[in-house]
Amino acid sequence: MKPPRATLFRTAAALATLALGAAAVPAVSQTARAAAPATAKAAPAEAQWIDRATVVWQAEHTAETVEELSYADGGTLPLTPAALTDAQKAAYPHLAGRPAYRLDPRDRDKAATALRGPLAAVQRAADDHDHVLHRTGVQIPGVLDDLYADRARSARLGPVFHGARPTLSVWAPTARSVSLDLDGRTVAMRRDPGSGVWSVTGRPDWRDKPYRYRVEVWAPSVGKIVTNEVTDPYSTALTADSARSLVTDLADPRLAPDGWASLKKPKAVPLRDARIQELQIRDFSIADRTSAHPGQYLAFTDRDSDGMRHLGRLARSGTSYVHLLPAFDFGTVPERRSDQARPGCQLAALPADSDRQQKCVAETAAKDGFNWGYDPLHYTVPEGSYAGDPDGPARTREFRQMVRGLAHAGLRTVMDVVYNHTVAAGQGEKSVLDRIVPGYYQRLLDDGSLATSTCCPGTAPEHAMMGKLVVDSIVTWARQYKVDGFRFDLMGHHPKANILAVRKALDALTPAKDGVDGKSIILYGEGWNFGEVADDARFVQATQRNMAGTGIATFSDRARDAVRGGGPFDEDPRVQGFASGLFTDPNGSPAGGSPDEQRARLLHAQDLIKVGLSGNLADYTFTDTGGRKVKGSEVDYNGSPAGYAAAPGDALAYADAHDNETLYDALAYKLPAATSAADRARAQVLALATATLSQGPALSQAGTDLLRSKSLDRNSFDSGDWFNAIHWDCASGNGFGRGLPPAADNEPKWPYAKPLLTNVAVRPGCPEITGASAAYRDLLRIRTTEKAFSQGTAEGVQKALSFPLSGAGETPGVITMRLGGLVVVFNATPSRQSQTVPALAGSPYALHPVQAHGADATVKTSRYERATGTFTVPGRTVAVYAAGG
Predict the structure, then answer these.
(1) Which of 85, 384, 469, 651 is the most exposed, having the fewest neighbouring CB atoms within 10 Å of its CB?
(2) 60 catalytically annotated
(3) Which of these, 99, 118, 114, lies nearest to 48 by C-alpha position?
């Protein structure tokens, strides 16, 4: 068995594969980010001051040593060996077995002073005080929380208006001084000693003025006192390229589009029934010739554009949410369009298998207008590059117009949020949090170095004020922008308590008080378990297992891998799965193994898919393909339980997302090379159906129903418009054959990609593209109109859902599902298959009316023989039968 697959994060310099913990970490997390600017390497900080009374430090005390904290101007705080309390061990599990020291109670009032300058833990020889045995820096987040968090948690930070007068507040407890640089003049700020918050109240004429904070603070990353001019972490608006914050009131009527206050959203859909389209704002319209605002928020107000018409069709078929890739202010795109570089080649004139397109795109990638945006700069301001004018609060108004436009199309809005890391740290130019409270907001490892397991400078939501920032930011997006849901990037790097605090804060929002119903806002995220926090090392994580039963969903990789086959890091990308021909239509790759091995893998994949169709329920009981009665939690997924959910809605199903190859591209690698475009389209719909027809929520990448391709690019985070743009008009193709994908992440696969890109059979035309979309929409209609797909409890699923032909005699490549009065046959084989369910003999069934009168002519040839209970379904087809037909 393969070892658990790693989540790979890519910076511009391409990080190595991470070996991650017990659970297999799915490829949706492979999101790439831009590399953070380098900063000076900080001195080691191996001691941790966890509260005003306690320091944890690996230095062992003996009769020959003395220990102390040394701070500015020769000050010292003697340390006495002690033991951690049970409460301290629970709060800091990764420190539980380490030596601890106590401060003298008489010295504890000196902590605030000591924390505002250089600080070291020093071990000296007892008989020679000048003989230093060991000296190291000190990590301070714990003591800062102990000293200030109780008061600071209730502070309103950033610009807050009381009538016409703004108050600006920033938490900077270790700063020696903080002043406000307001439109070129300096304004003094006052420090509250109890909370560590600096604030100043201004005049009405401060409204919309640019400002930054001037913070004098000790910076361990450079080992000196610095004066940083830095934007506000709680900014509500920014100038272009995030140069300065603006004193902007989000309640200002000038920022509200017409009808904003009375905007009627589509009826809220419970998370267990959510059908979600994931899209990137620029991808959506940049190549849409019918859009008046290509690449902008306002493209979602172009009701007659091809893109909006397509979203409208999806909404009418049952899609309920549009999930926007990061739309907060991020750090890797020039915000003024005049500053954005463009490839200088005639890309369309180059051969389909050429390497010149990717070379040309790479030359401008760092300065073009495209990036996925997983590199946060300011968490609570809309990204400026999507605005008509990035220089000022217009981006606020246009973001709201986008939300309104989606609502008018029948869709609610989800934001992809990335609170787990920042684009930079230390004294980096784009570092915000760490230049205000150095060493607090970013998670540090045991030696004081920066945690970067997420690819970038990690944040520490386990610290009170970073956790508060997460909650405050989410509430602002919900109240001020009417966002209907949030998808947390790398949610497993958050404490479960932090995500539950978000849920609690949202639940408190009411239409009467806040203009939104917070209880209807959905939450889901990537619950992967890896890195320095893995296996609850530092706190109880918001991982797949831990979030079960909370009403907050996590992405489920189980069925996805079974459907597609293999993984994104396979040396040979042709490893097959259920929808891509494993055993039933082998592609000849030696990676496939023998026919017996393929058959065994396929049957196990079918068990994984059944668990997925149940909503990944841990306790769902069924007969597996070995003939054993098992629970979902007893089905193996790379050494972890396949089933982990407590109720429908805990697990989110998907066959593809922005990470890794699109579904079409994955199937392009895996299906036999001679597979026709028509059969590829059918395999695509079948793969999508395993998520679409599952219990619980499901997500698909925008354009996947149109067979969207990125020309085999598995990591298109910085691959520009050429590889990423969605083509809504089938006459423009689906994106396949736009050249070899960028070398940085794909070159090892070029020998497999090159012959595919020129293979006419792989390139679909309008019949395949429009046919696949129409067939998918038919399945959406069935999913959202048949109540059997919307079981509210695990008990309901157990009662309604069964797999009557599951067992040792199950047909490889075919899953037969019975759900209430429905029978669904997933035939992934290339040939027609008959499935006889003896218990249904004599019962009337007919093809579901939606499919019987739908767009797919092939599914209409499905048959049912009442006398024997036999369902006959064409190859690569999902047929839904309704009782009583």
Answers:
(1) 85
(2) no
(3) 99
